[in-house]
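ok new one. same drill as before - structure tokens go in, u give me an amino acid for every spot. 244 of them this time. try not to just spam alanines like last time pls lmao
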């Protein structure tokens, strides 16, 4: 993968435009996400581990909002069945184009189909593993319930949804403390105050985090029997929800 350094917000922007997954972001994305999401490499590795355990023979595994396909690659490297199909989907043309190139020459048992499209329109069927790795937070709140319900309905019994998200906290003091530690994580990873502040402005109203309670209520309402946090670092977490 490209290891170009993310310097998008390193100079003063006259106007900070709303964050988009365009070509400029695609070019630095591996560095950006690694330095911006605490635990990202661990989460990607564990998606492979969970897929190895939960992918069912002859089923589909979905990577919704796949970006450059890191979660798909991790699943492909770990799923032991040759007849599983991985469907990776993103609505950013630039992401999908680069993802296809990155997945071209990689071997693996399962085939990965990289598609351009909106995950709200994607049919989910015969699924054993569905991944939403930091994607739901970019979907309009009004569409989130329907999307999670569609995923639940498309999962086979015993199937799982892996849902990773940036969290909000209902207690203001906890929210401020977690956010403060998160910004310090970014500082430790070399981002300046200007980069942190311009990125925060760019993500305003684009990335809209829910609280853990809202996520868990939505998952339970859709029918998931359990939804547990298996990873959390500051305001970033990953849940696994199981359909019995
Ligand atoms: C933070 S990135 C996801 C990172 C990726 N899952 C990973 O593990 O590396 C969010 C991605 O979701 C995509 N996205 C946002 N809204 C979408 C939608 N409605 N349909 C499809 N993709 C969407 C963006 O284009 C972006 O690539
Ligand atoms: O940089 C931030 O502040 C973030 O919230 C991180 C985050 C994400 O969670 O998706 C935001 C946009 C980029 O895709 C990479 C990471």
């Amino acid at each position: 993968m490209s290891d170009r350094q993310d310097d998008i917000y390193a100079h003063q922007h006259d106007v900070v435009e709303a964050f988009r997954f365009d070509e400029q972001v695609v070019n630095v994305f591996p560095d950006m996400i690694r330095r911006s999401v605490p635990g990202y490499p661990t989460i990607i590795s564990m998606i492979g581990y969970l897929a190895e355990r939960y992918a069912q023979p002859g089923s589909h595994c979905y990577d919704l909002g796949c970006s450059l396909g890191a979660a798909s690659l991790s699943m492909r490297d770990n799923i032991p069945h040759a007849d599983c199909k991985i469907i990776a989907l993103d609505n950013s043309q630039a992401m999908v184009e680069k993802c296809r190139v990155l997945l071209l020459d990689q071997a693996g048992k399962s085939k990965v189909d990289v598609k351009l499209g909106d995950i709200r329109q994607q049919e989910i069927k015969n699924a054993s593993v569905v991944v939403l790795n930091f994607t739901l937070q970019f979907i309009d709140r009004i569409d989130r319930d329907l999307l999670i319900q569609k995923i639940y309905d498309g999962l086979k019994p015993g199937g799982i949804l892996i849902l990773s998200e940036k969290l909000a906290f209902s207690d203001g003091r906890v929210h401020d403390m977690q956010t403060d530690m998160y910004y310090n994580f970014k500082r430790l990873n070399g981002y300046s105050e200007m980069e942190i502040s311009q990125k925060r402005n760019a993500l305003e109203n684009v990335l809209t985090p829910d609280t853990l309670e809202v996520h868990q209520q939505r998952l339970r309402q859709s029918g998931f029997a359990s939804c547990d946090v298996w990873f959390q670092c500051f305001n970033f977490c990953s849940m696994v929800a199981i359909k019995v």
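The helical segments are 23-36, 40-54, 70-78, 93-104, 141-154, 172-188, 193-203, 212-222. and btw Strands lie at 60-64, 85-90, 111-116, 127-133, 155-166, 226-233, 236-242.
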